[in-house]
Amino acid sequence: MRLAVDLTKCQGYGQCAFLAPGVFTMQGDEALVYDPDPDDGQRKRILRAAAACPVQAIELDQPRNLRRQAEGSTASVRPVAGKSADSGKVDEGLPTGRIVIVGASLAGLRAAENLRRNGFEGKLTLVGDEPYEPYDRVPLSKQVLSGWVRPDRTALPRQLGVDAEWRLGVAAAGLDVAGRRVQLADGSAIGFDRLLIATGMRARPWPNPAEAALDGVLTLRTSKDAARLRRRLAAMPERVLVIGAGFIGSEIASACCELGLPVTVAEAGPAPLRAALGESIGAIAGGMQRENGVDLRCGVWVLALEGDDAGRLRRAHLSDGTVLETEVAVAALGGISNSEWLVGSPLAYGPWGVACDAGCRALDADGNVVPGIFVAGDVACAAHPLFGNRFVRLEHWGDAVAQAETAAHNMVSRPDAQLPHLAMPMFWSTQFGCEIKSVGVPSLGAEVVIAQGSVEPRRFVAAYGCDGRIVGAVGFNQNKWLDFYERLIRQGAAFPPAFHQIDEAERHQPFAAAFPNPPVLPPIKEPPPWPSRPPGSRSWTTPAARIPTPSTQNSAAPR
What's the Cα-to-Cα distance from 327 to each of 232, 234, 236, 258, 304, rounded to whole Å? Predict the structure, then answer.
């Protein structure tokens, strides 16, 4: 059977590890890891664990016979009300017709399931550049690298039958908006009435092509990448070099420590996780790495990778003057949006992804909604009503799922029934036995304060503020408190927090968060505002307060 745990919900209570210890394991105080494809003999234990989870974070695969029944119930395809996909007609409501989803990963699969759940009975096609069915990327840098889970056993659980045509192993190559057609790399084309772009990202390779081609120079993004890296780590190299100390680089270093492998992390910035946590809190994460034996070198660049005559990696030349003997180097340099296939289309796209409004509707370069085209997942750069309608790019599991739900709802709804994406951003990372979890958008904060707990035992909550309001919070092994901080962010609560609470930090003075320069965002002066509450809608709620951004200029001007 297949399962996934929504770790944005998980609060580390550990009932699942008690009820199904062969499937779920706690690392440290609150960090949960799990087997995404356990033996079916564990089913009863897993079902009890899922039922006992206080936050219902465990997602299970629907039995295949029930999936077939569900697929049969949505198999009827009736003509589109109006004209067909080939005619270019876009209907206001779309219970039938043809929907194409480009991107067959987490966001694509969840969108397909939600389309069927919302009553779409038409033809559904999913296009994916990888030849595999949708799989979970979360275990790749954790359970897979440690050897607990095979890289080909991370398929996502199916929650609902989707009765879809799957075009796997073929990438999208172009988009004809006027003709309502997606061009594929094999020369074929697919017509659509509605289109969802969920193409995600790919790993940024080492910039020197000759050095990137050396045997032993790797990246980590796909199941295939994880299989290669796992084989290298299983061979017990004398030293592993990780280039970049973001989340992926830090989790790779954690896996190396778990395996007893010497690992050096070269980070050009002053601290790990600087883009997500800021330099000040990132330095605490850096201390955690060094405590676990990582040779962490901040402010150090890799100048060159050197191979032998057989093309195998042998050493790395660093900017601190050292030459590091290594057989394995992993470039953890972030990601590149899979948006080049949109060249020639009117959509607003670039290094920052594909621009969309608060309802996941794609925008053109002038900020106008492109009818019938939607965006979700890592590739989406979306205007967020909770943050002053500012463009926000979130490459996180929970946001991909929430955006997929919003996009699916709006794709089959009349304009007056469409809803904005209001989910609060959250992310997590499990490394060195510590669960680091965030709520809100800490990178909007100018200052940060340790609001609860203590830094020394790596058990605290840091609150981030901008213009006197709380905009984000990060917990180290403090999962259970983040729901409280989510409410404060939604309410626009004052920063620094002035209340007294359990486990209040002794030092309560704000200090500079020290984030790097803001990321490049779409060159659209201001995204279109989301309309007021749709008539008859009970689920739309106006944000209680505008959450501030670093400055009015930055929230509107292109960057």
Answer: 9, 13, 10, 19, 14
